[in-house]
Amino acid sequence: MPHPDPQMTVAELNHFFDEAFDTPRGYEVEHVEQDRLRLRQSVASLMLRPGGTVSGPTLMALADAAAYALILAHIGPVALAVTSSLTISFLHKPQPADLVADAEFLKLGRKLAVVDVRLHSEGTTHPVAQAVVTYALPSGTAS
């Protein structure tokens, strides 16, 4: 079942993140539509493990950020939505290149939102990781 149309644009989401966080986040929302969002993370040398692979914590943070951005896009700029669960599967070695996160709702309810996030390295189509992220929503924010 489709969810409501987004309440925030790409520009509004990026502006919200710029204002809400004190440190540079390294990612940008690229696209938002009903039920879906794309986020891009620039990969810096600090995010790499020996052997040139992107670290697991970097992938988990990106999956969480993509889920949060998708939720905010649909419920509006509600800073108090919080992660309640994140399960991730690492599937392939990420390349030391930009990461792309494609997030899609599995559920958007009144109290919980569940988001499927697939991550891939720029220039590849196979996912390097897949996560299911659950957020607890503040009262009165979703349908």
Brief summary of the model shown:
The protein has helices spanning 10-20, 56-75; strands spanning 27-33, 36-41, 82-90, 99-108, 112-121, 129-136. It is α+β, with helices and mostly antiparallel strands.
Please describe what this structure looks like:
The protein is α+β, with helices and mostly antiparallel strands and 143 residues long. The chain has one domain: Hotdog Thioesterase (Thiol Ester Dehydrase, Chain A, Roll). It is 22% helix and 35% strand. It contains two helices and six strands, in the order αββαββββ. Strands 1-2-4-5-6-3 form a six-stranded antiparallel β-sheet. β1 and β2 (36-41) form a beta hairpin. The chain is globular, with a radius of gyration of 15 Å. It starts with 9 loop residues before the first helix and ends in a 7-residue tail after the last strand. The mean pLDDT is 87.
